[in-house]
Amino acid sequence: MTPLPVGPPGARLDRVGAEIRRRLADAPVGGYALLEAAFAGQRLRPGPAVQAASVCPPPGRPQPRHLPIVETDREEVAARVARLLSGVAWAIVTKPAASGLVRVEVPRPVYHRVARALSGAWRDARRAFEAPTARVEPGAAVALWRMAMLVDGIGPQRDMVYLRAGTPALAGLLVSAAEGVGLAPVVEHVRGGPAVVLCHPGEVHWLLAEAGAGDLARLWATAVG
Question: For residues 201 and 164, what is the distance between their CA atoms, to the nearest angstrom?
């Protein structure tokens, strides 16, 4: 069993959270790779300036060999997205000096094919999760939440998953996916966009176990105890 980290309560909580993120990032890709990557693409799409400079560089500037798919401040997220895309294209992880952020990029010749694949996966996910009579596949719901937890982290308190969803559409999809497998998420309307929260310990532990970090659920429950 994974030993309980030592140190001040806040530091223990941070270390357990970091270890959970590492486990989520290293989880097997499974059958929902494009779904996870599509969520990352929606949540972490590079800003308009980055996209414009990459896809349509200024006159006289050479065409870049690779184009960005996602941009994030979490290296473990970028590493997982690159793995998730391996069935579609050879993706690389870069860290431009100017921004300090990490990007996942694909070769220019296949960029539009990758973008279409992610758009199609996202369209299929919305159809699967949001239909009134939809039967949610547990693996798909867990894959969606795994990437959401990687992007936004867990906490800020023990036994809690608190996701800043970014947009109402993303929040709605996370809620539909969770409810489809019997979880009871709560939506909080906060500055910067809605947050989707799981605060029942049993549900949080089940989700962490299914997502690849089950042996850390006890530590997450007791990290500040």
Answer: 19
CATH of the domain at 132: 3.10.28.10
Is 3 within a domain? no
Residue 134 covered by a domain: yes
Mean pLDDT, the chain, whole residue set: 84
Report yes or no on 4 lying in a domain: no
Q: What does the pLDDT look like over 14-54, one tens digit per residue?
A: 788 888 889 999 999 989 999 999 999 999 988 755 554 55
- Please give the pLDDT value at position 1: 43
Report yes or no: 20 and 213 within 8 Å, Cβ to Cβ: yes
Number of domains in the chain: 1
Express each pLDDT in 105-164 by its tens digit: 999 999 999 999 999 999 999 988 887 777 889 999 999 999 999 998 787 777 789 998
> Strands 193-198, 186-190: parallel, antiparallel or unpaired by DSSP?
antiparallel
pTM of the model: 0.86
2 located within any domain: no
Count of other CB atoms within 10 angstroms of residue 17:
20
Q: By residue range, what is the domain housing residue 153?
A: 9-222
User: Long-range contacts of range 201-206, CB-CB < 8 Å, 24 or more positions apart?
Assistant: 201/159, 204/159, 204/160, 204/161, 205/159
Contact 67, 95 (CB under 8 A): no
